[in-house]
Amino acid sequence: MTERKVRVRFAPSPTGPLHIGGVRTALYNYLFAKQNGGDLIFRIEDTDSNRFVPGAEEYIIESFKWLGIKFDEGVSFGGNYGPYRQSERKDIYKKYVKQLLDAGKAYMAFDTPEELDAKRNEIENFQYDAKTRGMMRNSLTLPKEEVERMLAEGCQYVVRFKIEPGRDVHVDDLIRGDVNINSSILDDKVLYKSADELPTYHLANIVDDHLMEVTHVIRGEEWLPSAPLHVLLYEAFGWADTMPRFAHLPLLLKPVGNGKLSKRDGDKLGFPVFPLEWHDPKTGEVSSGYREKGYLPEAVVNFLALLGWNPGNDQEVMSMDELIRLFDLSKCSKSGARFDYVKGIWFNHQYLLQKDNSEWVPEFDKVLRQNGIEATAEQEAAVVGMMKQKVVEYVDNDGNKKKRNVSFVSDLWPLCSFFFTAPKAYDKEDKFVRKNWKETAAADMEELAGILQSLDDFSVESQRNAIDSWAEATGKKPWNAWRVCLVGTGQGPDMYELSAFLGKEETIKRIKSAIEQLN
RNA sequence: GGCGUCUUCGUCUAGCGGCUAGGACACAUGCCUCUCACGCAUGGAACACGAGUUCGAUUCUCGUAGACGCUACCA
Questions:
Q1: Does strand B come within 7 Å of the CB of A308?
Q2: Does A226 reside within a domain?
Q3: Which entry of A94, A119, A263, A512 is annotated as an active-site residue?
Q4: How many structural domains are present in chain A?
Q5: CATH number, domain at A316?
């Protein structure tokens, strides 16, 4: 085995937004490349002109930029193996198609789509292969003159790979080991279409990977069935000795139900399946994105990395650098992974907690503005500091009340609005109020307000000294009633911190109006 | 239907012939406490089934079932 520099690629087709499963495939390629000091190539596989969606390519590039997955070369990144867009490589493919044709390893087929449909109706499980190609219209069955005449007339044709039956084809997969398939069950795949002068995936893929000196093909399991075909293609070209190693990744499955993860699941269960928000240029439909939902890219990366792989120990929270260090294709699991988006939320919680308060501010500021609040960055950071470890109550899909950590900056608002606006009204029926607003509460609060009023220094320490000693001397426990005054219910941070944040004037104002309304 | 891949708690998974089958998410409880929390601790919860190999199988082999994927002039 020759020492070749590791080169891997991620090669999406620009048919829409990047699916989260594609993100994981790209991530694994990136981790593998970086760990081995290799290159990651970004190639656009736009050989199906009918499915092209404008904006998709830019979307994909922006997604990876946000996620911190960096390409070394490719579309928009430059490099010495270009062009990296398959639609710009027509001449290259033509050359290789001819090579196969000349060597008798491929042939031209003139069957029209209608004729093929007819055959499929006529013969059950029809497959274009060694058994059936003799009865079709192709350069193998037609007289040479006839073929030349049709070519001269400009008849459309496709080039098919001539698969020799009865051979065991071995795919050496880094994750699954030796996968063996008999070539008899393979069909003569279309490699090239004269109609648009473009190759199909299979041909383009092999030619490009070879020319771009790709050493490892890391892709989804849906490609495993066509891997033998690819092996045969490498052999047909005489490139077997530099054929890349294969690694077929397990699929991402629906959180509930059967099948692989689809956009529908996200819509139904309320989680994004795309990294960025996507606006469909045709339908105008908007699909939510992780970025816009308030996820941190580190969290998305970490979460995705662990869906189908783990470092073999109990470590779960890992930075990109750690992932690069620890990643191991041979430790990838073989079975599909259900997409556990709840764990993704937990990862976001972890990374959010690690962030400095000031890093929450821009997002928090957005949330506050949406609610008509203006505050300084210092105030916002202070509130974040007091609130970041709280929980949110929410109602799940089954209508049950549940609790969730503050996992997104936007979770903060319902928990901290009282910092910025006084309780609209005091609800006597509130459970916490009922329990903590006793008969003596009004009098106690009057007394408390008096003490606060007398303080020149309204800092946390100053208040704590004054109130604690009063509480100790009188045996009173004023905090919960005080909380009722300032918050309206049983939420919020330490009372001294809250009161210091609000300031003397606002604090006393709220105490007064609570006394008024609750008695 | 054919071909291929896969199968450990509800979920993500560790395990690579002998373990009280480990961790995390989620869930429940307790501790802490001026509230809600965070944190910490605890708990319930799994080897698809059937043969075989072996002194011994979650682990190896075969079969069954199920799941997933592919089966296009899409990728």
A1: yes
A2: no
A3: A263
A4: 4
A5: 3.40.50.620
Final residue before a domain boundary, out of A148, A174, A206? A206
Q: Strand B: which residues 236-255 of A lie within 7 A (CB)?
A: 250-251, 253
Tokens 């690629």, located at residue: A9
The mean predicted confidence, pLDDT, of chain A is: 93
Instruction: Name the token pair of A480.
Output: 């919960």
Query: Domain span at residue A491?
Result: 423-518
Question: A492 and A475 in one domain?
Answer: yes
pLDDT tens, position by position, A222-267: 999 999 999 999 999 999 999 999 999 999 999 988 888 988 888 8
The protein residue nearest B69 (Cα–C1') is A222
What is the ipTM for the molecules in this complex? 0.95
pTM for this one? 0.94
For residue A219, being part of any structural domain is answered with no
What lies within 8 Å, CB to CB, of A119 at 6+ separation is A111, A126, A132, A136
Last residue of a domain, one of A206, A239, A274: A206
State whether residue A109 is helix, strand or coil. strand
CA angle, A316 then A361 then A461, to 5°: 95
Q: Determine contact, residues A232/A240, Cβ cutoff 8 Å.
A: no
Amino acid at the residue A172: D
Nearest nt (C1') from A194 Cα: B73
* A131/A200 same-domain check: yes
The reply to whether A128 has its C-beta less than 7 Å from any atom of strand B is: yes
Question: Both A163 and A256 in a single domain?
Answer: no
pLDDT at residue A459 in the model? 92
Tell me, what CATH number does A199's domain have?
3.90.800.10
Strand A216-220 relative to strand A245-249: parallel, antiparallel, unpaired? parallel
For the CA of A127 and the C1' of B50, the distance in angstroms is 37
Does nucleic acid strand B have an atom less than 7 angstroms from the CB of A90? no
Q: Is there contact between A338 and strand B, defined as CB under 7 Å from any strand atom?
A: yes
E strand or H helix at A214: none
- Mean pLDDT of the A34-59 span: 94
What are the helix and strand counts (H, E) for chain A?
A: 20, 17
Residue A171's identity, in one-letter code, is: V
Task: Tell me if A2 is assigned to some domain.
Answer: no
| pLDDT per residue as tens digits for the range A288-320 | 999 999 999 999 999 999 999 999 888 999 999
- What is the CA A312 to C1' B59 distance in angstroms? 17
Positive or negative CA dihedral for A128, A133, A138, A140?
positive
HEC secondary structure over A21-75? HHHHHHHHHHHHHHHCCCEEEECECCCCHHHCCCCHHHHHHHHHHHHCCCCCEEC
